[in-house]
């Protein structure tokens, strides 16, 4: 989704390095992608269908749903880029930002 996402490679590299710090990237606590875990807390996963990480997020969510007892809810924002809640009003995705905020509000009130 390089035509619709706004995260440059340099930003992603910086973020990964800042997050990992002095740890090894292979540490299962660094990335839950291939290390689904049990959680007693309900989780809302919100992702835009046009963001760079859509397939990864859905893969992670599917793995998390396979863990017995997990309650994982998916909110897909059709055609939206990454993080419409934070950047939607600045990038022209105001309706999607409102939709995500509404989904979060409904999820929290459940």
Question: Could you write a compact summary of the structure shown?
Answer:
The chain has 110 residues and is of the alpha+beta class. Helix content is 44%, strand content 11%. The protein has 4 helices and 2 strands.
| Low-pLDDT residue intervals, each spanning 5 or more residues | none
Structural class: alpha+beta
Largest sheet, if any?
2 strands, parallel
Q: Tell me what portion of residues adopts beta-strand conformation.
A: 5-15%
N-to-C SSE string, H for helix and E for strand: HEHEHH
First-to-last CA distance: 33 Å
Q: Report the radius of gyration as a whole number of Å.
A: 15 Å
Number of separate strands: 2
Q: Which properties best describe this structure?
A:
single chain; 110 residues; 4 helices
Question: What does this protein look like?
Answer:
- This protein has 4 helices and 2 strands.
- The chain has 110 residues and is an alpha+beta fold.
- Helix 2 (54-65) links the parallel strand 1 (43-48) and strand 2.
- Helix 3 packs antiparallel against helix 4.
- The mean pLDDT is 86.
């Amino acid at each position: 989704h390089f035509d619709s996402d706004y995260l440059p490679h340099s930003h992603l590299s910086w973020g990964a390095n800042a997050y990992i710090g002095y740890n090894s990237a292979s540490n299962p606590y660094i990335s839950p992608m291939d290390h689904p875990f049990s959680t007693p807390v309900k989780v809302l996963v919100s992702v835009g269908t046009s963001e760079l990480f859509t397939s990864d997020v859905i893969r992670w969510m599917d793995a998390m749903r396979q863990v017995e007892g997990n309650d994982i809810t998916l909110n897909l924002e059709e055609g939206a880029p990454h993080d419409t809640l934070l950047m939607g009003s600045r990038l022209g995705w105001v309706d999607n930002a409102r939709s995500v905020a509404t989904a979060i509000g409904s999820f929290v009130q459940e």
